[in-house]
Specification:
Structural class of chain A: alpha/beta
Strand content of chain A: 15-25%
CATH superfamily of the largest domain in chain A: SPOUT methyltransferase, trefoil knot domain
Number of strands of chain A: 12
Order of helices and strands of chain A: EHHEHEHEHEEHEHEHEEEHEH
Largest sheet of chain A: 7 strands, parallel
Strand order of the largest sheet of chain A: 8-7-6-11-9-12-10
Oligomer: homodimer
CATH architecture of the largest domain in chain A: 3-Layer(aba) Sandwich
Number of helices of chain A: 10
Distance between the termini of chain A: 51 Å
Radius of gyration of chain A: 20 Å
Largest interface: A-B, 35 and 35 residues
Chain lengths: 266, 266
């Protein structure tokens, strides 16, 4: 049963739009995702939105009908509203005709199964939500188990991160932890911690990567703290042929992640 | 001789701020860059700003004094203004204390010297300025000669692209061309065109890359047009272990670019 909403001041719409802000996401334990492809990826990975928001001017599509059916089957709500209101919800000029509200996932380290994958990505104090979403997308591509966010990172459930992840926010495990929690957890079972680093580092190509391999990159401006690097099993570096002394964090994670993949799954 | 400006409505400030918009950049043939490090990179690569804008609350720094001297030596202008006005110019909450106005460079294919580098990056219809800046930054890191922008790409001289390039906008050559101009130019001299592709592609690792190698990625949503891929000498693909069928464009360029580098300069 669809509910029609045509006013931007409707409380349901206001509550959904508020999920664009981190404090409201945190309070509600909910986040927003948009687009038929992304919502279909979510459903196929067992994540059905609690609220589905449809544009009155959407294109009909069998996957959209399936999505609506899935939402109703679990007792979720379906709202239909104007393209203008939908674009205000998603913050995009050309909304994709559909958005969903999802419950946030368990992001504790305890929820991760490190035996489930050969590669895990780790980001420390990553501030850019686009970089974070791109790391999730890359993690999906290299068959990583998930992304572990150390210290004060951008929110993986923010609209920009979800968008940049291209659906990988639903396929990758996500954990958030302080370094002081992460390191004992890591050392409590087999696992190799590898830093993309400039200090005391060996060439990234041909380094002795071992599964499960945790590939860590640091903050966009400051890189990894020195004691974090020291705690790693392996520090590797990529050639830097020009003036710059570092790569974009998501790029570094990808170049290194693909190298680890080639070594572990030749 | 510094000129003090304290009003946002000052015509000089308005003209500089207008450079945040593409149409004004195009009309003026000028662009904005910010931050001491970036402006120093520019100077060391022979690019001195025509106008230097300093914040009254900047930290003193010997490189800043050198920069100011360089601007005055070439008859440029030095403006001093409030942090508030500077942040309105750069669109950043925490401006870095200094910004510069530069003349745009020659971006014709004729200005490129393909014998000057083993690797060149090529982007087709790349729409995201952050991706474009990140490709410039990666190009610098792998020792590429520059970035060639095919068809309707984001503006490499936009504030966001310049920022993401981390100074590489001043170290990498940049050319803009339609495909119909680029292909004859490419075929007019030795050069291997390699596409990151999903069609009829071989694994990217161990492919027979040859210098000068032109590494091409396509539009973020649509990828490369089929006839563009067909025109390439080599189509290569990265493993995709998850649900997604593509990487972020700047990530694909980097993973492939580092592989080409390892082959050409082992």
């Amino acid at each position: 049963m669809r509910r029609q909403i045509t006013g931007f001041s409707n409380p349901a719409i206001k509550a959904i739009r508020a999920l664009r802000e981190k404090k409201h996401r945190k309070a509600a334990g909910r986040f927003l995702a948009e687009g038929l492809r992304l919502l279909t990826d979510a459903r196929e990975n067992g994540h059905v939105p609690e609220i589905l928001v449809l544009s009155t001017e959407r294109d009909p599509h069998p996957l959209l009908a399936e999505l609506e059916g899935a939402v109703e089957a679990v007792g979720g709500e379906v709202l239909e509203t104007t393209p203008d209101i939908l674009s205000k919800i998603t913050g995009k000029d050309n909304p994709q005709g559909v958005a969903g509200v999802f419950a946030e996932f368990d992001t504790t380290l305890a929820a991760l199964d490190r035996t489930g994958a050969d590669i895990w990505l780790v980001a420390q104090a990553l501030r850019d939500p686009g970089n974070l979403g791109t790391m999730l997308r890359t993690g999906d591509a290299i068959g990583a188990g998930g992304l572990i966010l150390i210290d004060d990172c951008a929110d993986p459930f923010g609209v920009e991160a979800v968008r940049a992840s291209m659906g990988a926010v639903f396929t990758q495990s996500i954990a958030r932890a302080e370094w002081s929690e992460f390191l004992p957890w890591l050392r409590g079972a087999p696992g190799q911690l590898v830093a993309a680093s400039l200090r005391d580092a060996r060439p990234y190509r041909g380094a002795p990567y071992a599964a499960p391999c945790f590939v860590m990159v640091g903050n966009e401006s400051r890189g990894l703290p020195e004691d974090y690097e020291t705690a790693c099993d392996l520090r590797v570096t990529m050639p830097m042929k020009g003036r710059a002394d570092s790569l974009n964090a998501a790029v570094a994670a990808a170049v290194l992640g693909y190298e680890v993949l080639a070594k572990l799954q030749p």
